[in-house]
Amino acid sequence: MLSPEILEYYERGGERDRLSAGTGRLEFLRTWDVLTRTLPPAPAEILDVGGATGVYARPLAEAGHTVRVIDPVPSHVAAAAALKGVTAVLGDARDLPEPDAGADAVLLFGPLYHLADRVDRVAAWREAARVVRPGGVVVGAVISRFASLFDGVVRGYYAHPEFVSIVERAVDDGVHRNGGAESRWFTSAYFHRPEEPAAEAVEAGLTGVRTVAVEGPLWMTGPRLTEFLADPHLTRVMLDMLRRVEDEPSILGASSHLLTIARRPAA
To answer: Which among 139, 55, 59, 52 is positioned nearest to 104, based on CA atoms?
Structure first.
């Protein structure tokens, strides 16, 4: 399960409103765009592993899907369970309390952030492959290896020497080790190189793997991004343009988040 540091970060609401504005809102809109093109049509059985308070579970249920959230944070489970059309239980992505081949799709939106050892990340992918039906889709979200490097400039964090050392290690080996030193910074996590999540999914037995950029480099545009998100027409144009280049290898490392899409081989 989660370390005390990571659990405390989420229990105090570290992610509660992150996806509602600014770069977080772009992340949500882009992730939702990918999901609408990837998931089976409703009604489908969707397992949302690491689904937190139900940020994606809620609209998925409203779209007609049956959604089950599995999360290691008690307050997340309580919040998700209160949503209409959503059930929620405590659990670990590496050992899911679910039967074989019971879901039409599995989302890994969170677990891969906090499994520093590759063997554990492959175990999470393998569990997702076990519980999804043959031919079913698994979508995993990861943080880019270079996200904190760019974030240090965007948010001015390099004024803090402690943050510089955190970034240096993350760039070297992917391990972002906060240690609880500063609450404004993301908790300890693992940051993937663009090629890593696909390799992990393949090792877990999944096929048809592709990785797409979520935000591309646009998350670093600051006030201009806010202007676009405030205008429905400009938002649609931006999302359309990002959709056109989501597979472009040259922008994967500039994106803050990546989505890897894979399938369990058909029986």
So the answer is: 139
Which H or E run includes 30?
A: helix 22-38
Position 236 in a domain: no
Is 228 within a domain?
A: no
Query: Does residue 87 surpass a pLDDT of 70?
Result: yes
The DSSP code sequence of 217-250 is GGGG-THHHHHHHHSHHHHHHHHHHHHHHTT-HH
Report CA torsion sign: 29, 34, 36, 37. positive
How does pLDDT run across 122-140, given as a tens digit for each residue? 999 999 999 999 999 999 9
What CATH number is associated with residue 55?
3.40.50.150
The answer to whether the CB of 47 falls within 8 A of the CB of 124 is no
| Domain extent at residue 21 | 4-143+193-217+243-263
Residue 182 pLDDT exceeds 60:
no
Which pLDDT score is estimated for 162? 86
Strand partners, 181: none
DSSP class of 178: -
DSSP string over 71-104: ES-HHHHHHHHTSTTEEEEE-BTTB-SS-TT-EE
Helix (H) or strand (E) holding 128: helix 118-131
pLDDT in tens, 65-82: 999 999 999 999 999 999
Write down the pLDDT at residue 187. 83
Total domains in the chain come to: 1
What is the dihedral angle through the alpha carbons of 19, 25, 28, 34, rounded to the nearest 10 degrees? Answer: -170
- The answer as to whether 204 is a domain residue is yes
Residue 252 domain flag = yes
